[in-house]
Each structure stands twice: as structure tokens, then as C-alpha cells.
Amino acid sequence: MDLDAVEVSVAEPPDDLDALDEALTKLAQKHPDKAALVKLRYFAGLTIDESARILGISPSTADRYWTYARAWLYRQVAGDAEL
User: How far are the Cα atoms of 4, 5, 45, 68, 76 from residue 21, in angstroms, in the given order?
Assistant: First the structure.
């Protein structure tokens, strides 16, 4: 392998990632329980059941939180009006 031909580039995070981080920060301020669930699901890769157990909530509540948080984050990232 010719190392001179290998190009390494470190780009700045995509705008989408910055927007998601900002939206998750806002969600944590308004709904810390829902933001915690997003972090467990998205960043830790836990299931609904595992996340619910850690947060001390039922799986059905976790499922409702997950549905709400995904929609809320989508609207924030897409630039819709604040909820």
C-alpha cells in the first residue's frame, strides 16, 4: 500500500450533526427525561426495554418518549417552529 496515495482528511462536523446537537441540548432543557432516552438509544445503542429499565420507566412510556423525542428533534433540525 502506497501511503503517499492515502489521503486523510478531517472535516468539520456536518451541519446536520451540529443542528442535532443543538436540538438535543434544547430538548434536554425542556424534557430532560426524553433527552436521556435519546442518548441511551442513539449513542449507547440500547433497546427500548434496556433504556426503560435504566430510566426507571415502563417500556410503553419509553416508547412514547422515543416517538415524541424523534419527532421533536426532526422538527428542530428541519427548522420548523419550536414546540
Answer: 35, 34, 17, 17, 11
Q: How far apart are CA 26 and CA 11, in angstroms?
A: 25
- Local confidence pLDDT in tens for the 83 residues of the chain: 444 554 544 455 556 788 888 999 999 999 999 999 999 999 999 999 999 999 999 999 999 999 999 999 999 988 765 54
Q: Which three cell numbers stand for residue 1?
A: 500500500
pTM of the model: 0.75
DSSP string, 22-77: HHHHHHHHH-HHHHHHHIIIIIS---HHHHHHHHT--HHHHHHHHHHHHHHHHHHH
Query: Please, are residues 73 and 41 in contact by the beta-carbon 8 Å criterion?
Result: no
Q: Which domains are assigned to the chain?
A: 14-78 (1.10.10.10)
